[in-house]
Write a structure and sequence with these properties.
Helix content: 25-40%
CATH topology of the domain at 26-93 and 101-270: Rossmann fold
Distance between the termini: 46 Å
Strand order of the largest sheet: 1-3-2-4-5-8-9-10
Oligomer: single chain
Largest sheet: 8 strands, mixed
Number of strands: 13
Shape: globular
Number of helices: 11
Strand content: 15-25%
Structural class: alpha/beta
Length: 420
């Protein structure tokens, strides 16, 4: 039971939210009627991909492309946006795998308000490292279409799609790794916890591990969603993901992760790889560190903790398998790493160093334009870098790529191979 002071704060907040929740809404902020599909068991993965491509195409065509051929900017026609948001499968049809060669599988699970695109670079890198591998990325219900579909999504449905994804690999691979980004990591942990005897599972690869929200008020969200639908409604300029965030999204994330940091959560028997930023403003990295140090097997674990000197973001403690890595990459104007940066290579055509899209939604007017288009006036970092969105006179673009991506992938590959 929460204390009387916390209850009073909750009631006051809910009253404020009720007063602010009125007003007309764009169709973007209402359910589309065709959200991401939850397939029945045994559905062929190719059918699952096609059905979700059709639903995404329908939603984007009616909500974004009806009035403009390139609403997300030049170079983003409808089919490219559909491909960025849809689930996918990758395999190397030309690979010459010798008899008896290991056939690994990788299930990629994206984060909250994101899409499978946030792990596309990782998927392609893993396929290059393991040419006999099979990789599949799922689309979480509520995602990929319009932000309004996040109003009705439930974390139980995310778990259902995660289980569908795992089951799709049976009989096709020798072992399976769950590759999660952000909320995808908590889904991986939930699946592994519920299936401790599943011999198909070989390990968890957790990027920007999301085992608890950064906000101490996250517990309010399951109540607040009944009074106000949105924490933020932003212009939807990103072809790959939503920029608006519903209260229900926060509530379902809280419900999904509740209990993962409890002392009585039994340690996982699986190998675990983590990589995250000590400057992360979205999730609580100290909770992830504590989980890593106390709930994963000492002999088969690895954690990269990116720490920025300008922010003093070193971990509160360390343990066997945890390595602190300098976050800075001054030649790429990176001063700290954000939650959104960890899984993306600098060469990514959308989010990379020379990519077409910059995370500047925290600015308005002239500052927004400068952030988007003037590289000399910006640095990359997490949202807490500097003050008022500026660091030493330059605007702070939220980090959208990891300058240490190649080194991280090398660590991940040797972890999988067991020869670090």
């Amino acid at each position: 039971m929460r204390g009387a002071g916390q209850q009073a704060v909750m009631l006051a907040l809910l009253a404020l939210l009720m007063a602010c929740s009125s007003g007309s809404e764009s169709p973007l902020y209402r359910p589309s009627g065709a959200p991401a599909w939850i397939p029945p068991a045994q559905t062929p993965f190719a059918d699952y991909v096609r059905e979700n491509e059709a639903r995404i195409r329908q939603a984007l065509a009616s909500h974004h492309y009806a009035d403009s051929p390139e609403p997300f900017g030049p170079g983003y026609p409808l089919e490219r946006a559909v491909a960025m948001r849809a689930p996918y499968e990758l395999r190397n049809a030309q690979a010459q795998c010798p008899p008896g060669a290991e056939r690994p599988g990788f299930l990629l699970i994206h984060g909250l308000t994101d899409s499978p695109y946030l792990l596309r670079g990782v998927a392609e890198s893993l396929l290059q490292a393991f040419p006999c591998a099979l990789l599949r990325a799922v689309l979480l219900p509520g995602h990929g279409t319009v932000p309004g579909d996040t109003l009705d999504m439930r974390h139980e449905d995310w778990l259902r799609v995660t289980e569908y994804g795992v089951e799709s690999f049976r009989g096709e691979v020798d072992g399976l790794y769950l590759v999660g980004f952000s909320t995808g990591t908590s889904l991986s942990v939930r699946y592994a916890d519920a299936h401790r005897d599943d011999t198909l599972l070989r390990g968890l690869l957790m990027l920007s591990p999301a085992l608890a929200a950064r906000s101490e008020s996250a517990w309010l969200s399951p109540y607040a969603r009944w009074f106000t639908p949105w924490l933020g409604r932003d212009a939807e300029r990103d072809a790959a993901r939503y920029e608006s965030f519903s209260m229900n999204a926060g509530a379902e994330f809280y419900l999904l992760t509740r209990g993962l940091s409890d002392s009585d959560f039994a340690p996982l028997p699986l190998p675990v790889f983590m990589a995250g930023s000590g400057d992360d403003t979205t999730v609580n990295m100290e909770v992830a560190r504590e989980f890593f140090c106390s709930k994963t097997p000492t002999a088969s674990r690895r954690m990269l903790w990116y720490s920025a000197e300008v922010a003093g973001s070193a971990p509160a403690a360390t343990c066997e398998g945890l390595q602190v890595v300098a976050a800075e990459a001054l030649e790429q104007r990176v001063l700290s790493l954000s939650h959104t940066a960890i899984s993306v290579p600098p060469t990514d055509p959308h989010y990379g160093l020379d990519g077409a899209f910059a995370l500047c939604g925290h600015f308005r007017g002239a500052d927004y334009d400068t952030c988007r288009h003037d590289a000399t006036a910006t640095v990359y970092g997490e949202r807490n870098l500097g003050e008022g969105g500026r660091f030493e006179g330059r605007l702070v673009r939220r980090g959208s790529f990891n300058p240490h991506y190649d080194a991280m992938l090398a660590e991940m590959v040797c972890f999988i191979e067991g020869d670090c």
